[in-house]
Amino acid sequence: MDSKTLIELERMPFKERVAKQYQFYLDEVEQGYLNGREGHGPVASKMQYKDLHSDEFKEVLVFGSNSYLGCSNDPYVKRKVCEAIEQYGIGSGGSPAFSGYTKQHKELEQRLAKLAGHEDAVLLPGGYMANLCWVNGLMNKNDVIVYDKHSHASVINAIKMTGVPFYSFDPDNLDTLRPLLERIRRRTPDVQIFSTVEGVRSIDGTIIDLAGYLEMCQEFEVITILDDAHGLGSVGKTGKGTLEHLDLMGRVDLRMSTCSKSLGAQGAFVSGSKELIFMLRNFSYPYVFTTGLAQPTIAAINAALDILEDRQEDRVGQLHANVRYMQDRLEQEGFNIIRGQSGIIPVFLKDGIARQLNRRLYQLGLFANIMEYPMVPPGLERLRLSIMSTHTKQEMEQALALIKQVANEFGVLEAEPKESIKQAEPA
């Protein structure tokens, strides 16, 4: 289904929309365009997968996993998890506000806060809940939030649920932010303005001019929140994320990062000053009324942090080397990509062929993800490759050969460049 058809569906009455979307799903299954994406075995650069059209699993190259540092199946991490199960069991038994908060939770929160350059932090079950947490715990209808138009769905949904007045802006054009902040201040001089942007953007792995953004926010006394879900472990000299990468540690008021991507586990955290984190601990419903992380998960996160901090192995450096290698090779073969610094490489496609192309790649033995409308604007469909530190050059060359083969079949290499995004350079 192309972007035009999807836009038309959005305008239909509910029952008609559901019927047509479900019929479209059945048609896609019959034509072989949809993957069931049912995996078997540990997360790795090669995995067994089964789709909707077969009862048999097949081995595929995996270039669609967020486990950038390969921690999900690391022997050291697994050993620490097993030890935690033997010592603590498998569940926390309650929410952090009641019985589900332990010495291990507190120590991990302190460790994550230190890593983020903040005083304190709270743990949440995932990135979606973490974004709900800070919106729900800090803002009310008397405040205003200005958000990055590329923000994750969790941020946008949280804002709408809270009922706080909101405005969006284009982070690639900060000239549009200043008049917006001036207008808000002129109309409501005493209102508290919040603003959030992504660090490493999930759709293309790019980073905005964060220094310029923070300087402008400081001028207008804006409370800033950085969504660095994809930044932790993938950018920065030691993997501390976007703020380290740009030498801006301590410059944001709040930071959200996940433990489910580079750290290979589950959960997320929000870090900030003692006062702001106090507000979240006591007044944020997504934190107060959600079961605390299980002890084995805490052990997995701690073990992954040990790996992240191991400068002798330096998986962050290996990830960066793999990303540069794959970017160079894709450009050499004529693909239209954006060169970011993270583990995400977007490969632009012609409108309307993303699902067909991705299905063909899977048939040939390559698992990757696609980004299409409404995740990206119409005409900016892309194959999103996720690079891991554990990918070998042989695996990257195999993936490249398959992408080139399918691109030639679909005529992708004839596509014109879609966009050019200026990258924030490391300090």
Description:
The chain is of the alpha/beta class. The chain has 3 domains: 1-29, no CATH class; 35-64 and 314-410, Aspartate Aminotransferase, domain 1 (Alpha-Beta Complex), CATH 3.90.1150; 75-309, Type I PLP-dependent aspartate aminotransferase-like (Major domain) (Aspartate Aminotransferase, domain 2, 3-Layer(aba) Sandwich), CATH 3.40.640. 41% of the residues lie in helices and 15% in strands. It has helices spanning 3-10, 14-31, 75-88, 103-116, 127-138, 153-162, 177-187, 210-219, 242-245, 274-283, 285-288, 295-308, 315-332, 354-364, 393-410; strands at residues 38-40, 46-50, 58-62, 120-124, 144-148, 166-169, 193-198, 223-227, 254-258, 268-272, 344-348, 366-367, 369-371, 382-386. The protein has a 7-stranded mixed β-sheet, sandwiched between helices. A 4-stranded mixed β-sheet has the order 1-2-3-12. A 3-stranded antiparallel β-sheet has the order 11-14-13, covered by helices on one side. Helix 6 links the parallel strand 5 and strand 6 (166-169). Helix 5 (127-138) runs parallel beside helix 6 and helix 13 (315-332) runs parallel beside helix 15. The chain is globular and about 60 Å long. It starts with a helix and ends in a 17-residue tail after the last helix. Mean pLDDT is 91; it is low at 414-422.
